[in-house]
Specification:
Elements lengths: L26 H12 L6 E4 L6 H11 L10 E7 L8 H13 L2 H4 L2 H7 L6 H20 L10 E7 L13 H12 L4 E6 L3 H7 L11 E4 L5 H8 L15 H11 L3 H17 L3 H12 L10 H19 L11 H19 L5 H15 L3
Parallel strand pairs: 1-4, 1-5, 2-3, 3-4
């Protein structure tokens, strides 16, 4: 770092990490992708995780560092493509976007036949499949001619982010489109690393798609960080200089962990605000207020789930009402609130009986007295 330069904030909240030196953790996940890429038979991967858990950053970091993770990088060509940032209104748009990224890779540019195949216009389903199959043919040609360049031994690996974008246009991206991708995968001509919030078969059911593509080889669920990864993140230095001091002091690290927990986005947000507070002379209350405001947009795991809410509502409201409503069979009108009160008490009494804290006879007497009291005698 230059003398007099202002240290930079190493924490990034609100976007994909594109600086590989700021990416921390996820070693097991990165290894899992690389191992399925370099195995005897490549296995496509579906990276699944909630919003802002780090799917995009993981895919992009793998794209940046994959050559360090496999034994023979010359066997592969890897691209990253966010389907949200490109125009994919038609099937040919998808093929064109993939082809353009492949054409940027030096290994592809070194083979004229691949260049020609990927630049074909129009690049429809047949033309795309032919071009991808040509990558595999290069391997066969290499086996027949040992003097050919080793870079011709290529497997295209597509890291596709925001994959659910394709489901918005089912008329273009139909079962035929997905069946074609599956065929290329099954013939070991193509490997996909697909990021989505839900597993792909969830979207298949929602959009009534039946292609076997959605039974993707391996599902990699992205969860919160481990304690070791949290420690690595809060110790990020403000400079990329080797052995640089952590950007945050001990108390600041503690506050960051307290606010962010083990969620990568919340930790980044907390670290960013704590660092800003020191630079701007703000106090801890300023950090907490800003953190509360900016973290509201992130759905909390489970709390934002409609399924979780429906289950809770059924347990604390619907179930007691149903139990309490049994008393209506005696012919007396009972309101929902009265039914709920009765139901809650009955559930509690049953629990006491199950744990042996109350006898069956005592429990029955209590219930009878409560029913008579609620019903007015």
């Amino acid at each position: 770092m230059n003398a007099g330069a202002v240290p930079s904030n190493p924490f990034v909240a609100g976007g994909m990490l594109d600086d590989p030196q700021l990416f921390v953790g996820r070693k097991d996940e990165l290894h899992a992708i690389a191992s399925r890429m370099s195995g005897a038979q490549p296995t496509s991967v579906n990276v699944v995780g909630e919003k802002r858990i780090g799917k995009s950053s993981l895919l992009y970091h793998f794209f940046q560092t994959w050559e360090q993770r496999v034994q023979d990088p010359s066997r592969y060509v890897v691209i990253y493509l966010s389907l949200q940032s490109v125009v994919c209104q038609r099937e040919e748009d998808f093929y064109l976007a993939v082809a353009q990224e492949l054409l940027r890779r030096p290994a592809v540019r070194a083979i004229p036949s691949l260049m020609t195949a990927l630049q074909l216009n129009p690049l429809n389903r047949l033309a795309f499949s032919t071009a991808i199959a040509l990558f595999k043919n290069q391997i066969q040609n290499q086996n027949n001619n040992q003097n050919q360049n080793n870079n011709q031994n290529l497997l295209p690996v597509l890291c596709l982010d925001d994959f659910k974008t394709l489901f918005e246009n089912k008329s273009e991206f139909d079962d035929g489109f997905y069946n074609n991708l599956r065929s290329l995968m099954d013939s070991n001509s193509l490997m996909l690393v697909v990021a989505s919030q839900k597993e792909l078969d969830f979207y298949a059911r929602r959009h009534q798609l039946t292609s076997s593509f959605f039974n993707l080889g391996h599902v990699l669920k992205l969860r919160e960080l481990s304690e070791e990864e949290v420690t690595e993140l809060v110790l990020l230095p403000s400079s990329t200089v080797t052995h640089a001091q952590p950007a945050l002091g001990m108390h600041e690290q503690k506050l960051t962990r307290q606010l962010g927990g083990r969620h990568p986005f919340l930790l980044q947000l907390a670290g960013m605000l704590v660092y800003q507070a020191r630079q701007q002379g703000k106090d801890e209350n300023w950090v907490k207020t800003r953190f509360k405001e900016q973290s509201r947009r992130l759905p909390r795991p489970g709390l934002g789930s409609r399924r979780w809410w429906r289950s809770l509502r059924w347990l604390v409201w619907n179930l007691p009402i149903r139990i309490g409503s049994v008393v209506k069979s005696i012919g007396v009108s009972v309101s929902d609130m009265s039914s709920w009160i009765l139901g809650v008490v009955i559930v509690c009494v049953i629990i006491l009986v199950v744990f042996g804290l109350v006898s069956h006879s005592d429990a029955w007497r209590w219930i009878q007295k409560l029913v008579n009291k609620v019903l007015g005698g």
